[in-house]
């Protein structure tokens, strides 16, 4: 059955420092100001019990087998799934700062099988729009040094970049962030988001396939 009031599920993906968090926050502010209920969600959500384990792992205070930590990242999305569905169905648009594709790209960059990585997310709410922000390694480097977290290393990030390009899905909208100010990029994203919010009204919510 179609819900006349459904919100859209919008995902921001992309490599390190491309501006996902900056743009996601601005998009939620934009939608809210225009009277459209919207909520920002980050993955990993470091505030939950599983999220705290992931935070420790990313800060290199805790070790896990690569498969086990992939499943924890996935479980961190599953623990949000029912509240995501509820919010979407009640008309709130969700703007996600990373989601399933980050899970596949980062875990497969460590050598895990693509399909194995994808399977644990099958059944999660399906994005209406994945905005994949693209930035060259040179411009990303110019945005400042890496932090201290586990994956913040140039060689590993290059492997993730390669996995993202192999993963590129039909439903992604690839947007270049190259040589664009925060405001210029936001302006472009708003148009895409407005269209997605409008078209989600007439669609039922899907689920990620295997
Ligand atoms: N991970 C995983 O392994 N498996 C999973 O399933 C999931 C995640 C979901 C934590 O993620 C790690 O978890 C991540 C993947 C892994 N590891 N890495 N790397 P995170 O999202 O918490 O990581 P983050 O450090 O917040 O995000 P980020 O990717 O590094 O950055 P960003 O959000 O894309 O960029 P930003 O914070 O908005 O901006 C970065 C800087 O650039 C900042 O100083 C901005 O002011 C500046 N900026 C932004 N836009 C511009 C423009 N247009 N021009 C100039 N400067 C700009
Ligand atoms: Mg971020």
Automatic annotation (TrEMBL):
<protein>
    <recommendedName>
        <fullName>Thymidylate kinase</fullName>
        <ecNumber>2.7.4.9</ecNumber>
    </recommendedName>
</protein>
<keyword id="KW-0808">Transferase</keyword>
<dbReference type="InterPro" id="IPR018094">
    <property type="entry name" value="Thymidylate_kinase"/>
</dbReference>
<dbReference type="GO" id="GO:0005524">
    <property type="term" value="F:ATP binding"/>
</dbReference>
<dbReference type="GO" id="GO:0006227">
    <property type="term" value="P:dUDP biosynthetic process"/>
</dbReference>
<dbReference type="GO" id="GO:0005739">
    <property type="term" value="C:mitochondrion"/>
</dbReference>
<dbReference type="GO" id="GO:0006235">
    <property type="term" value="P:dTTP biosynthetic process"/>
</dbReference>
<keyword id="KW-0418">Kinase</keyword>
<comment type="pathway">
    <text>Pyrimidine metabolism; dTTP biosynthesis.</text>
</comment>
<dbReference type="InterPro" id="IPR018095">
    <property type="entry name" value="Thymidylate_kin_CS"/>
</dbReference>
<dbReference type="GO" id="GO:0006233">
    <property type="term" value="P:dTDP biosynthetic process"/>
</dbReference>
<dbReference type="InterPro" id="IPR027417">
    <property type="entry name" value="P-loop_NTPase"/>
</dbReference>
<dbReference type="GO" id="GO:0004798">
    <property type="term" value="F:dTMP kinase activity"/>
</dbReference>
<dbReference type="Pfam" id="PF02223">
    <property type="entry name" value="Thymidylate_kin"/>
</dbReference>
<dbReference type="InterPro" id="IPR039430">
    <property type="entry name" value="Thymidylate_kin-like_dom"/>
</dbReference>
<comment type="similarity">
    <text>Belongs to the thymidylate kinase family.</text>
</comment>
<dbReference type="GO" id="GO:0005829">
    <property type="term" value="C:cytosol"/>
</dbReference>
<dbReference type="GO" id="GO:0004550">
    <property type="term" value="F:nucleoside diphosphate kinase activity"/>
</dbReference>
<keyword id="KW-0067">ATP-binding</keyword>
<feature type="domain" description="Thymidylate kinase-like">
    <location>
        <begin position="12"/>
        <end position="186"/>
    </location>
</feature>
<keyword id="KW-0545">Nucleotide biosynthesis</keyword>
<dbReference type="GO" id="GO:0005634">
    <property type="term" value="C:nucleus"/>
</dbReference>
<keyword id="KW-0547">Nucleotide-binding</keyword>
């Amino acid at each position: 059955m179609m819900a006349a009031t459904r919100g859209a599920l919008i995902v921001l993906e992309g490599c390190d420092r491309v501006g996902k968090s900056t743009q996601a926050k601005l998009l939620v502010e934009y939608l809210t100001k225009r009277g459209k209920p919207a909520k920002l969600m980050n993955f990993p959500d470091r505030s939950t019990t599983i999220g705290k384990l992931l935070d420790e792992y990313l800060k290199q205070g805790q070790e896990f087998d690569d498969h086990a930590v992939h499943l924890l990242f996935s479980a961190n999305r599953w623990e949000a799934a029912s509240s995501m569905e509820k919010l979407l169905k009640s008309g709130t648009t969700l703007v996600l700062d990373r989601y399933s594709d980050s899970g596949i790209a980062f875990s497969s960059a460590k050598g895990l099988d693509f399909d194995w990585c994808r399977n644990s997310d099958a059944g999660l709410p399906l994005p209406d729009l994945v905005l994949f922000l693209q930035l060259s390694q040179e411009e990303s480097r110019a945005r400042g040094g890496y932090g201290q977290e586990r994956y913040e290393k140039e060689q590993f990030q290059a492997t993730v970049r390669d996995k993202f390009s192999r993963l590129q899905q039909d439903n992604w909208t690839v947007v270049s962030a190259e040589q664009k100010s925060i405001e210029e990029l936001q302006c472009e994203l708003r148009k895409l988001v407005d269209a997605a919010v409008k078209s989600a009204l007439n669609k039922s919510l899907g689920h990620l396939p295997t």
